[in-house]
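for the recovery benchmark. tokens below, seq after
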């Protein structure tokens, strides 16, 4: 099974797909807002349970790389990379309108151990420390 994650803003989307690119076996969309870091792992478990699967059934992860919210993309990529590393499966980060289709194709060539990197679309807007 392939887990696809899109965390580019206040709405989070996830899909559980067979590698043959058939329609999603299960999907989940929710308004995560500022609770993404608290909810993402729970929602991944929920999605897997809906499809009667466990994390050990995953063969790869596709994550939307952006552009989008700096924090949302960072959280999504951190979870995707950590999950892929712990399961020794490949993870790919893809951007663009056809990111999901491109990501599934990219998984065929991908090897485990290489993290996906976010694309923010602009420099991060980080406040400088007060002197």
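predicted aa per position
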């Amino acid at each position: 099974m392939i887990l696809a994650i899109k965390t580019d803003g206040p709405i989070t989307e996830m899909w559980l797909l067979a590698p043959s690119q058939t329609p999603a076996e299960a999907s989940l969309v929710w308004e995560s807002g500022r609770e993404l870091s608290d909810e993402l792992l729970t929602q991944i478990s929920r999605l897997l349970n809906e499809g009667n699967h466990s994390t050990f059934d995953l063969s790869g992860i596709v994550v939307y790389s952006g552009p989008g919210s700096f924090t949302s993309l960072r959280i999504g990529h951190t979870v995707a990379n950590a999950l892929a590393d712990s399961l020794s499966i490949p993870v790919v980060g893809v951007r663009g309108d056809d990111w999901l289709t491109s990501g599934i194709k990219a998984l065929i060539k991908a090897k485990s151990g290489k993290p996906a990197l976010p694309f923010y679309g602009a420099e991060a807007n980080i406040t400088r420390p007060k002197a």
